[in-house]
Amino acid sequence: MNEQKVQLLDQNTANQIAAGEVVEKPASVVKELVENSLDAGADNIEVTIFGGGTEYIRVVDNGSGMSEENAKLAVLRHATSKIRAAEDLLHLNTLGFRGEALPSIASVSNFQLLTRPVTEEFATSIKIEGGDQAECIATGGHTGTTIIVENLFFNVPARRKFLRTVQTESRYISELITKLALSRPDVRFKLISNDKEVLSTPGNGDLVETIKALYGKNVSEELLTVDFADSEVKVRGFIGKPTLLKGTRQWQTLLVNGRIITNRMIAKAIDHAYQSQIPKSGFPFAVLNINVDTESIDVNVHPQKSEIKFSDDSTVYKAMYKALTDALTRPMSAKPQDMTLLDDSELQVFKPAETAAEAAEIPAVLPESSENKPVEAKTQVLPASGSNTGAIKTEPAPEYKAQQQSVWKEPEYTYRPPKTEPVYTISETRDVFDKQDNIASNIIDFTDTDSGVDTIWPLGQVDRTFIVAQSEDSLFLIDQHAAHERILYDKLVAAHNDIPAQQMLIPLYIDVTSQDVNLIEEHREEFLRLGVDIEAAGEAMLRVSSLPADIKADDAEDFVREITQMLAELRTIDPSDLRQNILHMTACKAAIKAGEVLNMRQMRQLIIDLCNTEHPFTCPHGRPCMVEINSAELYKMFKRT
Fold first, then answer.
1. How many CB atoms lie within 10 A of CB 430?
2. Is 45 helix (H, G, I), strand (E, B) or coil?
3. Is-contact 324 239, C-beta < 8 A?
4. What are phi and psi of 318, to 5 degrees?
5. CB burial class (10 A; 0-12, 13-18, 19+) of residue 173?
6. Quick one: pLDDT at residue 84?
7. Angstrom distances, CA of residue 316 to CA of 268, 320, 351, 421
């Protein structure tokens, strides 16, 4: 075989090879040109496209512009004003630095550059067609730079063939300009596609106003402020409340020292911070700028500079996680004020009367107003424990040890709704509370960063599933199961590895597959730390000796089967993920269920405990457990605004 001759490639061929790395699609062209505009100090940038950017791209800025000499050098490979030596790569403060963008773009398009610095009387115009010799003339023009790119990839048909549809390429450009605008709220951006304005930002330096212009008022009103700083890392920006979700990460804008990047470690920190607040299929909104020492990052690891490497990933991860968890817990810092919390054992408020005569002697506590007196019902009335009417038939119940009683579980009773129920005013509702248990000060301080301190009072229960409550200016709808699940989950998380377990009097034996047995045996130590004692009792059988204290015996088998199913579905089993999943299942199984009747005192205690959790608006699975409707929204619903 004959030896092939080695030869130097001509300049145009080298540029086209470089274009294969730098210019992947029309959005890549827009990115390089807009970043050059930002580096030139522009505060007004307008992008116009036709045909998804394949036919026409124009970027106009009011930056510093270039002299004729600099303009001629700018279209040559590796000519840049950003760095002077290799050492400068360690101290980059600009978005561009390689000097490859303009010659690479010009080699695969019909390219035109028009630029004028404020000190020059005339502008410089340079035209390049497919990398051929540049034509340079002096002409009139505004201060700043205008670049026009037409017929992208006209001389590289193989690359053009792999482009997406016009609509898709246009969307890529729109998403890019959105992120660039979020990275620089002090710059006014405008995107025009096929003669229609797609987006426009105010450029007044207010990030919230920029978010509002790009995503709308509904998103801008659901933001949480992130502001964290330590000796090495600063994290600032905004994240969305857990209810603000989309199906992709596209609306997560991550910046490092002002540069748009993608980074798996940072994305994972966001996921972990929201872990017990959102569904697995949802992604929260985020615009976050991480500031670190320029020497601690390497931005020269990707052709399009979209990825970076940190010298210390763990430090950045910890800072991100702390910043986000602080922001997520800040909106709700509720705590009891002058309040006597009940012991778990005392929350068994439906205590049966010893005799029917005893029960009959205790009247129901109702306001004395004659308008609110219900029709007398011939039913036994419970002791004044928080229920405003007594239509519950009671029978003696077996004694329970206090430590074995669930906070919300009650002995079985036959429930019959009263024939008529009184309707109370707000003041009368509070009178009922005062008379029922002499704990008038047992109210909830509900602190919101925007609205100050409110007091939440339960009003009643709907369909034995939802609690209706009120503050001075808001209505609250609470899912009792999801709320109690959040309460129990937070208690379990706070317990770390000291989760209380209950030994089963008779071990439970469960038939499973041999694969399930192997998976359980592999992670037995982790299960023991979580209060779950499961071990093999044969090739296809498990023996359960203890479970978390809140799991009822009737739910034990379902609980274990859910564990085996979870292990089978997980591709890789991380100990922290396993712990989270077990705690989720424990809280879910132990929580009160939909369809269970709660009296007023129980509802109030549930609200107190919920407002004292870190994330009272979502359950551990990410579903909402409390919805607030403020007075402005109520007025709007009834068209009174």
1. 15
2. strand
3. yes
4. -60, -40
5. buried
6. 56
7. 12, 6, 54, 58
Q: What is the pLDDT of residue 47?
A: 97
Please give the Cα distance from 349 to 314 (Å, whole number): 49
- What pLDDT score was predicted for residue 134? 73
3-state helix, strand, coil split of the chain in percent (to 5) is: 35, 25, 40
Mean pLDDT of 419-447: 44
- pLDDT of residue 80 exceeding 80, the answer is no
Q: 561 in helix, strand or coil?
A: helix
What's the pLDDT tens digit per position in 563-579? Answer: 777 777 665 556 666 67
Phi, psi of 345 (to 5 degrees): -70, -25
Cα–Cα distance for residue pair 545/542, rounded to 1 Å: 10
Which of the 8 DSSP states describes residue 363? -
Judged by DSSP in three states, 313 sits in helix
| pTM, full prediction | 0.61
Q: How far is CA 346 from CA 214, 385, 590, in A?
A: 52, 11, 18
Q: How far apart are CA 68 and CA 264, in angstroms?
A: 43
pLDDT tens across 213-235, in order?
999 988 998 899 999 999 899 99
Beta bridge partners of residue 252, listed in sequence order: 286
Helix (H) or strand (E) holding 213: helix 207-215
Decide if 406 contacts 416 (C-beta within 8 A): no
Lowest mean pLDDT among 348-352, 473-477, 544-548: 348-352
Q: Measuring CA to CA, which residue among 458, 583, 571 is closest to residue 530?
A: 583
CB 408 within 8 A of CB 598: yes
Give the whole-angstrom CA distance, residue 333 versus residue 330. 6
E-state strands within 426-483 = 443-448, 452-455, 457-462, 466-470, 474-479
**pLDDT exceeds cutoff 80 at 444:** no
The CA distance from 633 to 639, in Å, is 10
- Token readout for 114 is 């028009």
Q: Is 438 exposed, middle or buried (0-12, 13-18, 19+ CB in 10 A)?
A: exposed
> Of 1, 12, 3, 51, which Cα lies nearest the Cα of 29?
51
CB 170 within 8 A of CB 49: yes
**pLDDT digits over 151-187, tens only?**
999 988 888 888 989 999 999 999 999 999 999 999 9
